[in-house]
Amino acid sequence: MIEFRGVGKRFPDGTVGLDSLTLTAREGEITVLVGPSGCGKTTSLRTVNRMVEPTSGSVHLDGRDVAEGDPAELRRGIGYVIQQAGLFPHRRVIDNVATVPVLQGLSRREARARAAEVLERVGLDATLAQRWPAQLSGGQQQRVGVARALAGDAPVLLMDEPFSAVDPVVRVELQDELLRLQADLGKTILFVTHDIDEAIRLGDRVAVLRVGGRLAQFAPPDELLAAPADDFVAGFVGRDRGYRRLGFVPATALRLSDLPTRVEGPDGAGPPGEWTVLLDGDRPAAWLGPDGARHDLGSLYVTDGGPDGTAASDGAGTLRGALDATLSSPAGRGVAVDGEGRYRGGVDADDVLALLERDPAR
Amino acid sequence: MRAFGYDLDVLVVAHVLLALVPVLVGLLLALPLGWWAHRSPAARRVLVPLSGALYTVPSLALIVFIPVVLGTPILSPVNVGLTLTIYTVALLVRSVAEALDAVPATVTTAAVAVGYRPAGLLFGVQLPLAVPVLTAGVRVASVSAFSLVTVGALVGIQSLGTLMTDGFQQDYTAMVATGIVGSVVLAFVFDALWLALGRALTPWSRAGV
Question: Which of A294, B31, B61, B151 could link A286 by a cystine bridge, Cβ 3.0 to 4.6 Å?
Answer without folding.
Answer: A294
